[in-house]
Amino acid sequence: MAEDQAKTLRDVKIGDTATVRRLTGEGALKRHIMDMGITKGVEVYVRKVAPLGDPIEVTVRGYELSLRKSEAESILVN
């Protein structure tokens, strides 16, 4: 898959599970995502998306988390 066609967590449909391939954010954004336990190879289940797309509620490693659109767009998935 070409980099410009990469699928992000933002593209995953409600009720689907995706595996994290790579984090594209830098600095504080990337550190914040990793602090939530979202790292390469982890499965993320999308539970709910707010009507305007922000926040996105996910389950990671058994924990329920809320992500902002900007965070979800920096998480590349398979």
List the helices and strands and how they pair.
Blueprint: E1 17-23, H1 27-35, E2 43-49, E3 56-60, E4 63-67, H2 69-72, E5 75-77
Antiparallel strand pairs: 1-2, 1-5, 2-3, 3-4
Keywords: Iron
Organism: Slackia isoflavoniconvertens
GO molecular function: transition metal ion binding
Would you mind describing this structure in some detail?
With 78 residues, this protein is of the alpha+beta class. The protein has a single domain (3-77), classed as SH3 type barrels (Roll). 17% of the residues lie in helices and 35% in strands. It is built from 2 helices and 5 strands. Strands 4-3-2-1-5 form a 5-stranded antiparallel sheet. The longest helix has 9 residues, at 27-35. The model has no long low-confidence stretch (mean pLDDT 92).
Radius of gyration, whole Å: 11 Å
- Provide the CATH topology: SH3 type barrels
**Strand portion:** 25-35%
User: What overall form do the CA principal axes indicate?
Assistant: globular
Helix content: 10-25%
CATH homologous superfamily caption:
Ferrous iron transport protein A (FeoA)
Number of strands: 5
Number of helices: 2
SSE ordering: EHEEEHE
CATH secondary-structure class: Mainly Beta
Structural class: alpha+beta
- Placed side by side, the strands forming the largest sheet appear as 4-3-2-1-5
CATH architecture: Roll
Oligomer: single chain
The stretches of 5 or more residues where confidence is low (pLDDT under 50) are none
How many domains is the backbone divided into?
1
Biggest sheet details: 5 strands, antiparallel
Instruction: State mean pLDDT (0 to 100 scale).
Output: 92
The span between the termini is: 10 Å
